[in-house]
Amino acid sequence: MRKVLVVTVGIALLGLVTGCATEEGSKTKQAKVKPAAAPAKTPAAKAEPAKAEPGKPKPVIQYVDTPSGRWMIHDEDRPAPPVITPGTFSSTRRVGQPPSDAVVLFDGTEESVKNWTDTKGNPSKWIVNEGVLESVKGAGYIQTRQAFGSCQLHVEFATPEKVEGTSQGRGNSGVFLQGEFEVQVLDSYENKTYPDGQCAALYGRSVPLVNACRKPGEWQNYDIIYHSAIFKDGKIVRKPTFTVIQNGVLVQDHVTLEGGTQWNGPHAISAFRPIPDKGPIQLQDHGNPVRYRNIWIRPLHD
């Protein structure tokens, strides 16, 4: 009995000592924790350009040099292009309208015929009938009074509905840029001829990508993007280039001429001939009554 009492008292004293030690340790740990300091007051931040986040590259700002100055990419202050009214497309029954910034060369009126002369500067002997300009056999080429260099040229034409002749003798004419380089006009609908002389060829030089011709008598069109030849001291320093779209189809794709397009014999080629930087637009009389309408041009600055 006395032994049990001693053991019980011993256990009680051991629990008391352990509890005191635990409470002291807790106080010690709590004493080491300091309350968070109040945030320091700082002045309001000033607006600054956005900076890249840490670890990310800084935004790239690039510039481009242009004729109007040096501009950032996507710069809203960069001068915008002029606003124009686009034209309308022609149909077999109705002639389209040119864009508002085009120079009208022929619009079916007698007044617009005054824009043209023969190659000697005299009034043309070509005829105008129902708003259509028609070549006359023996009348010779006609050309614009005004000279042009690089340009966008729109021409509509129709070869004779009544088919006569074959090869180069069937619906033959031509459109000349700078008074020198020819885009061939020919009835090439089921009409075999040498490919570099068929309709839409750069005569004697470049065969069209495809034959996109309509039937004889049907209206067709050319849209020609031309960058002019430049000569210096009688030598070519920039060769001319042609892109031609016939009836909505690309037929000459930025072709660079390596020489002239004149007839120089059955199997010969012509060389460049020095010419001014600007020359007339010419239409060819080749003895066939080819008709033209809705001719306009937009000079290009290059």
Structural overview:
There is one protein chain. The chain is an alpha+beta fold. The protein has a domain at 103-299: Jelly Rolls. The protein is 12% helix and 27% strand. The protein has two helices and 17 strands. The protein has helices at residues 2-32, 110-113; strands at 63-66, 69-72, 103-106, 116-118, 127-129, 132-134, 142-144, 151-158, 173-177, 181-185, 220-227, 230-232, 235-238, 241-246, 249-256, 282-283, 291-299. Strands 3, 5, 6, 8, 11, 14, 15 and 17 form an eight-stranded antiparallel sheet that branches. It has a five-stranded antiparallel sheet with strand order 4-7-16-9-10, with no helix packed on it. A hairpin with a 3-residue loop joins strand 9 (173-177) and strand 10. The radius of gyration is 42 Å and the shape is globular. Mean pLDDT is 87; it is low at 1-48.
Please give a handful of descriptors for the protein shown.
alpha+beta; Jelly Rolls; 302 residues; 17 strands; five-stranded antiparallel sheet
